């Protein structure tokens, strides 16, 4: 399959996209293929000047883009979605090579979801932006209208690169904002391919701008730029806090989707035939590199032994290997630093008195020679940790899950909430009363009951506590990407 990028010196050569032109930069960053540990792409290392030009480009395109109206904007975004869908296989292959995930997963989850993000906001916001809210009160007509903000800075992480970028892009553009996007320096390839799609779709110059580079330089320049009116960031809690410290005094709008330490609670009456396969996915899909992955499983004492035995048996059946192989359920972790971090946490678990039931340190992976320098990690299950242990408190963001035992409902709710994060949780029971009671008391943005990762775009998405601020989704992204104004007319 031929990929639509330039090759220089045998490596994929990415460019920024500013005011409708593909541009080189002075410096480049090496980007590694996680499956082999080899450099495969050169990513622009954008400096202040590159970011300034991208913001200027977006600012100068704003009045035109905001003025053409939502119906025309929707036409452009639908065209981008269609062209992206036509290149599904190419994008899936590129996402896998850049991120480490199996091609099959990119083909069934990441890229189709990116297409859906674009289509869904283009379709639904044509109606939503058309409605206004009128009230007749004491001789006045009140209504509110929504306006785009101007230039939006969109900063994305490396775990679901195109999926998460498009979840920001589609509403930002539909609202009439223009954008400067910065993907992770470790996974910039599909954002670059997306710039080609915007170009081909004929989206007016300056509406979509891409600057690649490091977070501490390109990312921070975007956040600090006075003409960037809002920042939508998905990434770690530590970086989210840095961004908030810069953007809040500048009174910028912010949407922060941050880390998680998500619990599953399995009650004694849970249907284990359903719970175990789903919790295996929840723990290890995408190598456990999804912010919504489960990393703490609390199981009622009446079924604890049975659950652990079945869960470990199922974990041992997971295939880890070549992302190109359709039989691989897990590919490679995204980068070497991250692999080291995950392995360090497994060592912490041992120091903290945990028992490693399967995975790293228990078995070794047999990989073909060409993959031996890749960043592979086996799905690892740990028990016997105290709730205060590092693996029970910190976000590991890899294929590591801890199982703990509980007796009482009120006890497990307190233990599930006893972390600094509040992104999501799942509850497993056949009793509706239990589900509703527990779901209500969990301090998180999403609770799944007897399922996981069933994501309707119509539902609000976001976290509490260290997992972020704001909600996004068909209706909720309006708050992030528009400014609402009240207009009061005396009649
Ligand atoms: P990260 O915070 O290191 O980086 C995210 C993005 O921010 C990258 O593009 C990076 O270059 C940029 N960045 C880094 N420092 C910056 C700075 N000072 N200023 C501006 N930008 C900066 O996160 P990551 O390692 O790429 O991704 C993993 C994290 O993302 C995990 O914590 C995970 O839970 C979180 N995540 C959250 C969600 C969610 O929806 N809540 C979804 C996916 C991932």
Automatic annotation (TrEMBL):
Family statement: Belongs to the aldehyde dehydrogenase family.
The organism's taxonomic lineage, starting at the top: Eukaryota, Metazoa, Ecdysozoa, Arthropoda, Crustacea
Organism: Tigriopus californicus
Name of the protein described by the UniProt record: Aldehyde dehydrogenase domain-containing protein
SUPFAM superfamilies reported in the protein's UniProt record: ALDH-like
Pfam families associated with the record: Aldedh (PF00171)
Molecular function GO labels: oxidoreductase activity, acting on the aldehyde or oxo group of donors, NAD or NADP as acceptor
Keywords: NAD, Oxidoreductase
Keyword Oxidoreductase: yes
Residues covered by the Aldehyde dehydrogenase domain: 26-487
